[in-house]
Amino acid sequence: MNGPKPKYNFSRNWYVADFGHEDYDDVRAWCAEQFGPEPDPPDAWSRWPIDSRWQHRYEQKIHFRDEKDYAWFMLRWS
Predict the structure, then answer these.
(1) Which of 30, 21, 23 is nearest to 54 (CA)?
(2) Where are the alpha helices (DSSP H) in the chain?
């Protein structure tokens, strides 16, 4: 397909890890300790989730920007 390319690229391939619902509080606390605070919800001008290393999006899933963080999580929580 020819034509102009979009000015911005908002997509990213995230590494997704599952965890048990019984570990919800512990997982989020551990991620914040290891990878920094979870990002605030986005607004029209934020770079979220581009700037965040991790985020809890769905019920029992943590999304990681970097493969090394995903691997560290899997070593701890799987």
Answers:
(1) 30
(2) 24-35, 67-77
Identify which of 34, 78, 36, 27 has the alpha carbon closest to the alpha carbon of residue 56. 27
Contact of 55 with 63, CB cutoff 8 Å: yes
Is pTM beyond 0.90 here?
A: no
Q: What are the backbone angles phi and psi of residue 62, rounded to the nearest 5°?
A: -115, 135
49, 39 Cβ separation under 8 angstroms: yes
pLDDT in tens, 9-20: 656 688 999 999
pLDDT in tens, 20-44: 999 999 999 999 999 988 876 655 5
Nearest to 48 by CA among 59, 37, 60, 34: 37
